[in-house]
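User: Please fill in residues for this 133-position structure.
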C-alpha cells in the first residue's frame, strides 16, 4: 500500500493510437494511453508536489503537468493500469526521504593498515635510485 495514493479521478486519461510495429491492428485500435496529471491541482501534500515539480524529467511540462505514455501492452486496459502504476511508482520514489549521512571516523586498525602500506610503498620507492657499485 502506498503512503500517498493517487486517486484515479485526479488524472486525465485519453486513448491514442500506439506507435511501432503491429500491422493492421495498430492502425485501427487506440490502445495506447496518455495519462495527464496536473500536479498543482492534486490532493497530494505540498512537500510531495514541490518535489514532483522540481524533477528534471522530460515527462514534466512547463505548466506542471506530468504526461505518461503507456503503449507496452496490446489492450487499452492493461496500458491504463501500467500508466497508473508508473505514476504511483514515481510518487512513491519521491516520497522517500534520504537519511542524513553521519560522518564516521576510520577505525584504529584501518589507520594502522593505511600507515603500514604507505611506509612500505615509501621503501619500495627509495630502492628506485641509481645503482651504486
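Assistant: Residues filled in for all 133 positions:
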Amino acid at each position: 500500500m502506498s503512503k500517498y495514493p493517487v486517486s484515479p479521478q485526479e488524472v486525465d486519461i485519453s486513448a491514442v493510437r500506439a506507435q511501432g510495429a503491429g500491422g493492421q491492428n495498430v492502425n485501427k485500435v487506440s490502445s495506447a494511453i496518455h495519462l495527464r496529471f496536473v500536479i498543482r491541482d492534486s490532493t497530494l501534500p505540498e512537500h510531495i508536489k514541490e518535489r514532483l515539480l522540481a524533477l528534471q524529467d522530460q515527462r514534466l511540462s512547463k505548466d506542471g503537468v506530468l504526461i505518461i505514455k503507456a503503449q507496452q501492452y496490446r489492450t487499452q486496459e492493461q496500458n491504463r493500469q501500467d500508466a497508473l502504476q508508473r505514476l504511483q511508482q514515481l510518487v512513491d520514489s519521491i516520497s522517500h526521504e534520504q537519511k542524513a549521512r553521519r560522518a564516521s571516523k576510520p577505525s584504529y586498525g584501518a589507520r594502522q593498515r593505511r600507515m603500514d602500506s604507505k611506509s612500505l610503498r615509501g621503501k619500495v620507492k627509495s630502492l628506485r635510485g641509481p645503482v651504486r657499485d
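For context: The beta strands are 11-16, 32-38, 65-70.
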